[in-house]
Amino acid sequence: MFAKEHIKYEPVDLPDRMDLSDEQMLEAVKAFYDKMKRRHTVRDFSDRPVAREVIEECIRTAGTAPSGANHQPWHFVAISQPDFKKRIRDAAEEEERRFYDGGAGDEWIKALEPIGTNDHKPHLEEAPWLIVVFAQRWGEFEDGTRYKNYYVPESTGIACGFLLTALHHAGLVSLTHTPNPMKFLNGMLDRPDSEKPIMIIAVGHPAKDAKVPSVAKLKKPLSEILTVAD
């Protein structure tokens, strides 16, 4: 990315300039909205395999996300090996049992009722791929000295958005899963202390009888999520 002894600003011409008319812009963004509103969080996966190359290209897309100081403070671990997925499921369900047995509090559990979730997470085994996302709190130069990463949660969150969009664009479905705590993933996946696991994304094709909670189709209208000052 950069070397300790050679960090300086070197401007280059914008390499990929888009030039759409106002009409083309509106048409393009409406088409993109129409595609993205068909994205759903799915917990029921089929056993249809997904090629490794597809997962790699989706993660490559995530790697193009903007980040603080362009430090790109993320790492993705993609897992398809069944025994590995089972280990992750077992560990995640152990944390989830604590969550649902009182660790979360009554208000949080009540908020989750319309989603229909519980401590049973079969999708962590059934999905052909799990992608574990790590946020890198600091990096290291080649000589081992540390450098600080900036806006790590924001940067990694944007990259996750890129990844979920790429997966949907590839015709796949996904589920973001966040057992708390997730520190067990560092040891299991041999990731350094500088990295914090923030998400497990189950990825694959939906089962033929896949269901989604009806509440998931209820999205706030534009008037509730937008304020315009013009």
Automatic annotation (TrEMBL):
Keywords: Flavoprotein, FMN, Oxidoreductase. Residues 37-205 form the Nitroreductase domain. SUPFAM superfamilies: FMN-dependent nitroreductase-like. InterPro entries: Nitroreductase, Nitroreductase-like, Nitroreductase/BluB. PANTHER family: IODOTYROSINE DEIODINASE 1 (PTHR23026:SF90), NADPH NITROREDUCTASE (PTHR23026). Coiled coil: none annotated. One of its GO terms (molecular function) is oxidoreductase activity. It comes from the Bacteria. The keyword Oxidoreductase applies. This is Nitroreductase.
